[in-house]
Design brief:
One of its GO terms (biological process) is vesicle-mediated transport. The protein has 3 helices and 16 strands. The protein is mainly β.
Length: 280
């Protein structure tokens, strides 16, 4: 909303209450009344609230809140199988359906690994500065509570195979197109390997076993009239690992106050590939 050329209201929660979404009913009313504006003439109650991102007098039948750790891993693995570069960019995503005006406190077991943190406006900055605790009154629905970066120095220079036991959930790996390739014969000791028509390899690992580390090996043949490559190929890898955060970030506890009854709390983690390269 603009007042005399200056931004007055930028909070999405208030804008959603002031500006009705276009639908068939609103179009019929605008034709019947001759009023084509879908902007309310009155300001919502949230404009005078200290928490403008939350609807006042909110009520839910089932009080529940879900916290997801979603991380993207940017890494370079050299031909010896060691990590040359490893960086993780993550987000703490919250899906909140809580009645009234709840007050939440989220703490981590190891907040010292977090760098370049950015917060949602609902987060109180002083508790984080003093005790690395996230104290906030959440918006209703899904939102990004914070984002962070982690260098995961403990992984750099180590063999990738040594950390295969931390991947304890479903994973999918995909190798993108390699130039001058005419034939591929790839096998794995666990899961299913599929060579697609666009020279893409899809490896569905499934649940990773505890007694062995999944590995894939095989042969990539060049075109018949090409004896050698001018450069060593680089593989772009994509993967999704459910149930684990490779930065080793752990949620310690989530406390909820100002609620009429005990809510349900759920936690999940997901790690996926960002810019992930394997050099040959």
């Amino acid at each position: 909303m603009i007042d005399n050329g200056f931004p007055l209201t930028t909070e999405p929660n208030i804008l959603r209450q002031m500006i009705a979404s276009p639908n068939i009913v609103s179009k019929m009313l605008s034709v019947a009344t001759g009023n084509s504006s879908n902007v309310s003439n009155t300001l919502p109650d949230a404009t005078a609230s200290c928490v403008p991102w939350r609807i006042t007098d909110l009520k839910h039948t089932n009080n529940e809140v879900y916290v997801d750790l979603v991380e993207e891993m940017d890494a370079i693995i050299n031909s010896d199988g060691a990590l040359v570069k490893c960086e993780i960019n993550g987000e703490v995503q919250v899906n909140s359906h809580l009645s009234g005006l709840p007050d939440l406190t989220l703490s981590f077991a190891n907040p010292s690994i977090l760098n370049d943190v950015r917060f949602h406006p609902c987060v109180r900055f002083r508790p984080w500065e003093s005790h690395q605790i996230l104290s906030f009154v959440p918006p209703d629905g899904q939102f990004k509570l914070m984002s962070y970066r982690s260098n995961v120095i403990h992984l750099q220079g180590q063999k990738v195979e040594e950390y295969s036991d931390i991947c304890k959930a479903t994973a999918n790996l995909r190798f993108w197109d390699m130039p001058y390739q005419c034939f591929a014969d790839l096998t794995s000791n666990h899961g299913a390997v599929n060579i697609l028509a666009n020279k893409t390899c899809s490896w569905s690992i499934g649940r990773i076993p505890k007694d062995k580390a999944p590995s894939m090996s095989g042969t990539l043949a060049l075109e018949t009239d090409l004896e050698r490559l001018n450069v060593f190929p680089t593989f772009q890898v994509g993967f999704r690992i459910m149930g684990v955060a490779l930065s080793a970030l752990q949620i310690d506890k989530l406390d909820l106050r100002n609620l009429p009854n005990r809510p349900y709390k759920g936690f999940r983690a997901l790690t996926q590939a960002g810019e992930f390269e394997v050099r040959s």
